Amino acid sequence: MKALHQLIESVKPHFEEGGKLSKFWVVFDSLETFSFTPGHVTKSGSHIRDGIDLKRTMFTVIVALIPALLFGTWNIGDQYYASIGQDAELLEKMFVGALKVIPLIIVSYGVGLGIEFYFAAKRGHGINEGFLVSGMLIPLVMPIDVPLWMVAVAVAFAVVIGKEVFGGTGMNIVNIALTSRAFLFFAYPKQMSGEIWIHDVASSKAAGLLVDGNTGATALGYLAGTVGKVIDTPATQTVMNMFADGGMFSIQNCIIGSIPGSLGETSVIAILVGAVILISTGIGSLRIMASFLAGGLLMGFLFNLIGMNAFMTLAPWHQVVIGGFMFGMVFMATDPVTAASTNTGKLIYGFLGGFLSIMIRVFNPAYPEGVMMAVLFMNVMAPMIDHYVLQANINRRQKRLQNI
What we know:
Elements: H1 2-15, H2 25-35, H3 54-83, H4 90-123, H5 130-140, H6 148-162, H7 176-187, E1 195-198, H8 201-207, E2 214-217, H9 219-224, H10 234-241, H11 251-256, H12 268-280, H13 286-306, H14 310-313, H15 316-319, H16 325-332, H17 343-363, H18 370-403
Antiparallel strand pairs: 1-2
Helix pairs in contact: 3-4, 3-5, 3-12, 4-5, 4-6, 5-7, 6-7, 7-18, 12-16, 13-16, 13-17, 16-18, 17-18
């Protein structure tokens, strides 16, 4: 590391003002800041002093995402070999999964960072590390069969419209990763219809090659098909049997994650490992996660009482372990930029987010992934929630002063 630091210091004058590479100062500064603690510090009277900074925060979130990323990569390979009826070793499954995952990550970071470099150069400031997390989250919430050019367009839209127009990192009012997914959902609904890539069985058996995949419904895709149908029909019962013990979407399989779904959303275990990392380091909000889960469970219990269709009869604890509910709860709803900031506001924000996630997915099967719409809606509502929480605190203090 010492040698690397000396190398950076030796070439630094070329990138400073007056140097022959000064136009590329933004690139150099971002690489230097990523590798080492920046040399510039707060000049005015800072009232909070801590060893944590944006770089360390973003790195911790990346570490928390690794379990979901690795499991999702394995799961893609596992789904592939299951579709062709073959057994395979761990590394073989990881290799097949990596063929799909790595291009998504490259496109996400390539397009997103390219746009961030451009805006940083135009505005004359350094690169912020905020997209390190967004660039990883975006592939994790995408269907694995989504075309790469669509990912590029979605990333560009999310970074420019969802972030840069508001001033960059820390100024956006909605989650960047969910903004990219929402853009694709409304612009290209067929590719975001709640289905997932599995292999073309006939072609693979004939040629023995990894060809373009076809799609099969996810858990939410199957359940959405039961809305509006009589519960005791054979077709509906066939779907619900898939969620019973021993079925494809049994509670055990949903917790482990060996089911079709977007890259990062299937394994509850991997997601909870990330939650422990975020909570123990103080980066993720336990209040938001706990209240989000409580809201989802309550909505599930209420649906059980109504029981108008098969989707509503699904157990509340089963509702929260399918789809992107857990992933959204841990990594999306807790985004400190777009979530509520006050302690009471976090409880309200999280509870309503979880409550609406289950409500949207059941009431409107056109949105098989209700957590996306719920979190984005709560992002917009978060400032108002904080405002009324603060105003309530002010009113209480004024009343105490009047009683003295």
